[in-house]
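Final report, closing paragraph on structural work. Over the funding period we assembled a curated collection of sequence-structure pairs, and we close with a single example.
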Amino acid sequence: MGKSRDGKFIPPKGKPSGAGNEEGLGMRKAMDGEDISKQLERDEEITEKYTSGDDELAPNIHLRHPNRNTEKGHDYRRENKNDGNNKNNNETISPQSSPTSVEELPGVLSKTILSELAVYESDICLSLYIPTHKSGEEVNEHADSILFKNQIQQARQLLGERNTDELKIQRILKPALDLLKDDSFWTEQQKGLALFMADNFFKYVKLPIAFSEKLYANHCFYLTPLIPAMSNDEKFYLLVISKKHAKFYKADAFGMEEIKIPELPYGMSDVVHFEEKEGQNLFRTGGRGGTGGASFHGTGSGEPDEKTHIAMYFDEVDEVLMKAVLATEKAPLMLAAVDYLVPIYKSVAKYKHIADDAITGNHDHDDVNALYRTARERMARYFHDGRKKALEQFYNNSATELTSTIPEDVIPAAYYSRISRLFVQKDEHIWGKFDEAENKLELHATKFEGDDCLLDKAVIKTILNGGEVFLLGKGQMPDNSKIAALMRY
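Its predicted structure, as stored:
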């Protein structure tokens, strides 16, 4: 035990020792009598102030209710100071909340992923779709993140109008706010971004298809806009070829990218070499790096004609493509070349799926995006065949019970695995409820509380049950209906 400057003993900090504790008694005896007297006087003053009798509080004393929230008024804020950006993040959070796991979904969606999103239900499920950009002025000016911020503000307002608890709103939107602050996230976008948010649930997917901006709040997610991103067969190849260049591309409904093949000849001079030998003009094929192939000799006097040289070069290109990519493929190959070169290539090519149509002209230095748009337009008829055949089959059976354009027939059929091909009008809704166990359907002219978009439900059920779905424009729909189906039985 220490002493003060005037020699008085100073008791240690902590709870006073009990009466049976000899050390405690010793300390009290050692204390100065004047100090004890002052302490007793203070105790009596406090007793007189706060009591009106033995063990009774004075009437002017406010007593806290035993169930009162003792944490009321406490500011639960996360204050990130000196985080490297000299920013303070003062977002109110629940003292019991835990971070929501954030998951990025693959850009080509499988039935398994679609099913996981489809079966998820909660009192609040937000589905958010926005267009984004891979590059350009929009990225430099942060157009995508600004649009996203506006959509998040709308989501907050929408949840507030639904009388959602403020802490729950913060938990649902916090992962989205974190993405909003992530600059690198917004420089790595594709054409569209879809997000699915609920309490303790957050998944997003970057897609090569552009969305119009949409925000849905319901007890389940809205998934129809994802259908074009399901594994699709709209794949083709493009070969841009001239006497000086050869470039090979893989394309689908969403975009096109060059496939780099080191062995691919870069031009005719990369294949055809001339040598003088014993008075004959000899030329041969050879890949990059001087590897030799079969030898060819000119016919008659003088050099072989240019057409023969071109055929040799194209034969080498076709052989490399077959070995590297095309041997097991059946996707169409479109040619982009000067018109007289197209028949020469077709005459030597072993690949049997070359498109009848071609992009004629010299396209060695074309912008890739412009070239893709032209190729995609030319290839459209190949990819419309499936939809065309499905519609033909529908109309061929229109006089039978295997087809229907009546929502009351089609929607239950989707739930019960009866639909082979489903046709749905783009960007439309049919609101209502369907009780699968009771086979009871309610349709509403406008959205009521607890309603589903039954078009969306029919689309998802059809896909998960092995049927095909075609999203069509209004003018393409049978009988101008929002929904139509070809049944299995």
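The chain has three domains: 92-229, 236-378, 384-487. The chain has a mean pLDDT of 80. We thank the funder for supporting this effort.
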